Amino acid sequence: MKKLIIFDLDGTLLNTIADLAQSVNYALSKLGFPTHKESAYNFMVGNGINKLFERALPEHRRSKENIIRMRQEFLSYYGKHNMDKTRPYPGISKLLQTLQQRGTMLAVASNKYHEGTKKLIDFYFPEINFAAVYGQRERILPKPDPTVVFDIMNDTGIPKEEILYVGDSGVDMQTAKNAGVTACGVTWGFRPIEELQMFNPEYIVDTAEEILSIE
Fold first, then answer.
1. What is residue 183's DSSP assignment?
2. What is the distance between the alpha carbons of residues 116 and 22, in angstroms, rounded to a whole number?
C-alpha cells in the first residue's frame, strides 16, 4: 500500500450531483436561462465551478459577466443546500477508516471551490484526520494542472513514488499523470469507464474495498 492516497471529492468520495444540479438550475432560473436535467450535469462538472457555469449557460450567453452572475447566485444557494442529498458513496467511510487505522496518510484534491470542499469533508468525514484538504483556490490552476498534488506532496513530505491518486474522471487521471503519481480510476462516479480507460491508469476499481488491495 502507498504511504499517501489523494482522493478527488465529487464523484469519488461523495455523490454531490443532485445538489450541484439543483443549485445550478436555481441560478439559471434566477437569471432567466433554461435549466438542465440532473443527468446532464455528470458531464458538466469536474473542471471547477466557473467551467460548470460556462457549460450550463446557453452557448450564446457564455460571457464573463454571466459567469460572475451565476457564481453569485449559485454560491448563496449551494451554501445552504449542499448537503440536502449529498452522501458518501457505498463503502467510502469504511475505506477511509480502515486506511487511517493502517497508518496510510489521506488527502483530498478537488476542483470544487475550497470553502465548499472543506465544509463537506468536515461534515461527512469528521473522524478522518486528513493530512491536507484542497479545493480550487484563487491563483492556483485547477486540475488537471498538478499544482494541487505538488502542494500536498510538500505538506506531507511524501515522494511521488509513494502516492496513489484516486478519482472518477479523465481530469483526475490526467492530473495523476501530470504529477507523476500512480492513478486509480473509480467506476461509481460521474463519468463512464471508457473515459478513464482513455488515460490508461494503473488501476480501475468498481468498489471502494478494492482500493485496500492496491500495493
1. E
2. 16
Segments in the chain forming alpha helices (H): 17-30, 49-56, 64-81, 92-102, 114-124, 147-156, 170-179, 193-197
- Could you give the angle at the alpha carbon of 173 between the alpha carbons of 89 and 118, nearest 5°? 50
For 145-195, the pLDDT digits (tens) are 999 999 999 999 999 999 999 999 999 999 999 999 999 999 999 999 999
Whether 34 contacts 136, CB under 8 Å: no
Given a cut of 90, is residue 73 above it in pLDDT? yes
Q: What is the mean pLDDT of the chain?
A: 97
d(CA 43, CA 52): 9
* Domains of the chain with bracketed CATH: 4-15+87-213 (3.40.50.1000), 17-81 (1.10.150.240)
